Amino acid sequence: MEWIPVLAYLLVVGGLTALGAPIAAAAFQHLPRRGAAFALPAALVPFAIAVFWIGQLTFGFHTLLLGLGIVLAVAALSWRRGARPDWRAVAGAYGVFAVGFLIMVAFRAGNPAITPQAGEQFLHFALVNTLERAETLPPEDMWFAGEPLKYYYGTQMQVASLSMLTGVAIRYGFNLGIATFYGMLFVVAYGVGGAVVSRRGGSYRLGGVFTAFFVALAGASTTAIRLFTPYIPDALAGPVEQAAFGFVAQRFDGGELQTTVSDLSQPLDWGWWYTRYVVPGTIQEVPLYSFVKADLHGHTFANPYVMFAGALALAYYVTPERERFRRLALVFGGLGAVAGLFGFMNTWSLPTAAGMAMLAVGAADAHPATLLPEGVAERLEPATAAESRGEWLAHELWRVALAVVVGGVVLLIGVAVASPFLVFGHVPSNEGIGFLPPRSPLPAFLVMYGGLLTMFGVYLANEGWPAAEDLPTAWLGAAGVLVLGAVGAALVIENFAVMALLLTLIVAGWLLVRSGRAGFATVLLVAGAGLLLSLELAHAKLPLIANPRWNTSLKVAVQAWTLGAAGAGAATALLLRRHVGRLASAGEARLAAGETAARDSLDNRAALGSALTVGFVVVVLLVSATFPVMMFAAEVGGPVADDHYEPSLDGLKAVENYHANEYDALRWLKERPGKPTIVETPGASYHWSNPAATFSGLPTVIGWDHEAEYRSQEAYERRVRNVDTIYAGEWAQAADLLERYDVTYVYVGPNEKDLYGDAMRSFDREAFSVAFEGGAVTIYEVDHSALPDDEQDGA
After folding, report:
1. Residues sharing a CB contact under 8 Å with residue 479, sequence separation 6 or more, in sequence order
2. Quick check: 570 and 223 in contact, CB under 8 A?
3. How many structural domains are present in the chain?
4. Of 217, 197, 199, whose CA–CA distance to 208 is shortest?
5. Which residues cross the membrane (predicted)?
């Protein structure tokens, strides 16, 4: 195990945490512990934005130092304005980060390999390598030589930056970057949950622990339901099997449902990879799944910042109305900056930052109009309190309308911050937004989100029941009619039930928040449910992806889980505090007064309600804990038990073990200075294709077929044909292409030999010299002065 790189990362993250502590103390002044848990993202957000902007002119280690200098200046300004961190709390928060960091280190150390089969690790490792070489941003596309990258690269830029700051090689930095961002998710979730629960009189620590568990560790209900399926009565087995296993059977087992059930309902055969395939036509992950899968995907690494957006929204929510400039700074400066970071890191999260701004402004006691100068605010804010339900509704709708405007402004700020990427042509090709895609069937949806939605419903029932008891009978009757109507519509209209369920929870939750009966935990639950609802209403239209919801569900659902799970974690702590306390008090009364007196004095209905609530919460906790227990057993416990756990963080282990005949050649290319262009044959994605560009970061003429999505199918296929010509076509045309793409090195390895065989040209020409030879690879260097002249030989 490589402990020195681990310690280097812990040291650098500790420095960043200390640097961000005054900034967090300034932004989160009204939260417990002065926002100590948010110190790391408070430093990383301005750092990443500064590096991104400076990098448009010049990128390198000096750029990182300038970025740190800007963060230091912001921290010094915060300190000068009186922001004093609670250093003991900062140290405690750093300890929470270290726990999350080491959990993920344990996962990655068991399987550190960077491979093409399991996901898009090749794509992201190539991006980190090419960013390390970059002189400006965006870098040259390593899989489309001569053109700037056309993919959001903020995640890989941050991973490369951390590796450069620590002096740790990328082969280790890839895995340590994953652990760093997971640790940040862990500590920010802890801080949000702790603050929400503490403000309502509960334990900060307990709220933090439950929220960190639900956000960073807990899994969907899928695993528990699949493992419990063999014990379900026969009368229920059919529908449950179809809901829990149907999509996996359709996608991987040719529709053989019973084969799938037999394979995936047994603990020893259970595979965590299949837990995201539940709702037909979608792939939906929880954060732990995304991090263990070990891509540097933006939708994975953005989640700590999604949680940080929740923290900023909470800070706005609790800030008094009189502190107008602080509220402006939080919503437009804080959430606007996070939105900008999302713009070039994970564009799918940009609307989420705007949505959190909208929810915070709409839910807070301070009217949205009070963000404006006093004279304008007086004209926009209702002058008197509502005297009737109609006036109250009108005032609330006006509040929501103004909050939507605020969210729109945050969105525009985000676009402006990320404008070098979003506005100037570096966004991958897309065909806009589509509406009303195929909807989710309720049974499969509940297999995935049943636990989370149960916690939402139980918490709403607890917060809303006193209010319901005070309502007139006529109002309760009208509500019952509406519920029955929604149920009837859901039964009549195909797959409408998920929309009806989510909309009911969202409206009920929002009304409780605005009535003052529910706090910010409900705002987070509403945010998560709102993102899930968006998947039923709209999707991004992407070329070459036939399934309309495929990418959208992958990128959005994990954000929904992050925010909704944060609300569920805080709700769990609050519910247990309230109802365990009631049950304990009832038990003490029974012991003190005797059985008969206790029966007479005890409110049996309240005791039953508390018992049921605690029971529901415990069941949800057990169901949610099944996934991380099974995953840890599979990824770490199994190898340890079999004495095969040989911890390492070296991402190149698999190359040494399985592609040793190319290892020396790939290391040689990695050591080449500058950015000389190479050529290698492309192959099928998710296979051992384009290793030369991937492991060196050098640009190659054409890489994986992802470039067809980013550029166009025609552009991709044209370059593939050109590579074929370089290796096996007419020499005059090949020479012209070598000149056109400014190729320095021609890579001839196993892929090239297998593809072209005897048809491959001889490189025994004056224009080529052997630059490297070893294993199964020969690398030729091109002498452009010896290439035939275009006018003489044609092209």
Report:
1. 471
2. no
3. 1
4. 197
5. 6-28, 35-55, 61-79, 91-110, 172-197, 209-229, 301-319, 328-348, 397-422, 442-461, 473-490, 496-513, 520-538, 558-576, 608-634
In one-letter notation, the amino acid at residue 144 is F
Nearest 5°: the CA angle 111, 117, 118 is 55
First to last CA, the chain: 53
What's the CATH number where 708 sits? 3.40.50
Nearest Cα residue to 116 out of 108, 127, 104, 125:
125
SS3 content of the chain, % helix, strand, coil (to 5): 70, 5, 25
* Spatial distance between the Cα atoms of 689 and 746, rounded to a whole number of angstroms: 15
In this structure, the strands spanning 743-748 and 677-679 are: parallel
- Tokens linked to 682: 């492309």
Q: Domain limits at 708?
A: 661-793
Please answer whether residues 21 and 72 qualify as being in contact, where contact means their C-beta atoms are separated by less than 8 angstroms.
no
Q: For residue 678, is it within any domain? A: yes
Report which of residues 700 and 438 the model is more confident about: 700
User: What's the alpha-carbon Rg for the chain, to the nearest Å?
Assistant: 28
What angle do the packed helices 3-27 and 39-55 form, to 10 degrees? 100
| pLDDT at position 794 over 50 | no
Query: Is the predicted pLDDT of residue 594 greater than 60, yes or no?
Result: no
Kindly indicate the confidence band of residue 477, based on its pLDDT and cuts at 50, 70 and 90. low
Helix axis angle for 154-166 and 3-27, nearest 10°, is: 120
CA-CA distance, 48 to 41, in Å (whole number)?
10
Q: Is the peptide bond preceding residue 138 cis, with omega within 30 degrees of 0?
A: yes
Owner of token pair 């020396």: 664
3-state secondary structure of 422: helix
pTM: 0.95
Q: Is 777 in a helix, a strand, or coil? A: strand
Q: Is 259 within 8 Å of 534 (Cβ atoms)?
A: no
Give Cβ neighbours of residue 538 (< 8 Å, ≥ 6 apart). Answer: 433, 434, 435, 436, 437, 552
Question: Which tokens belong to 621?
Answer: 């906790």
Tokens at 415, concatenated: 């676009």
Torsional sign, CA 552, 554, 557, 559: negative
| Tokens, residue 100 | 């999350």
538 bridge partner residues: 435
Tokens standing for 340? 């900008």
58-94 confidence digits (pLDDT tens): 999 999 999 999 999 999 999 999 999 999 999 999 9
- Give dist(CA 265, CA 243) in Å, integer: 13
Integer Cα distance of 45 and 34 in angstroms:
18
Q: Phi first, then psi: what are they for 414, rounded to 5°? A: -60, -45
Element of type H or E holding 747 = strand 743-748
Give the three-class secondary structure for 539.
strand
- As a whole number, mean pLDDT of residues 254-265 equals 94
Backbone angles phi, psi at 788, to 5 degrees: -65, 150
Quote the tokens at residue 298: 């933006």
Closest to 348 (Cα-Cα) out of 617, 98, 534: 534
Please give the backbone phi and psi of residue 768, each rounded to the nearest 5 degrees, phi first: -125, 145
Instruction: Kindly compute the dihedral angle of the four CA atoms of residues 576, 581, 587, 592, in this order, to the nearest 10 degrees.
Output: 170
Could you write out the three-class secondary structure of 289-302? Answer: HHHHHCCCCHHHHC
Burial of 793 (0-12, 13-18, 19+ CB in 10 A): middle
Strand partners, 770: 780
- For 678, other C-beta atoms within 10 Å of its C-beta total 25
Q: How far apart are CA 269 and CA 263, in angstroms?
A: 6
The neighbour count for residue 470, using CB atoms within 10 Å, is 8
699 cis-preceded (ω within 30 degrees of 0): no
Cβ pair 41, 353 in contact under 8 A = no
Is the residue at 259 inside a domain? Answer: no
Tally the C-alpha atoms within 13 A of residue 243's C-alpha that lie toward its C-beta: 21
Q: What is the pLDDT of residues 147-187, one digit of tens each?
A: 999 999 999 999 999 999 999 999 999 999 999 999 999 99
Q: Is residue 470 part of a domain?
A: no
Residue 715, in any domain of the structure: yes
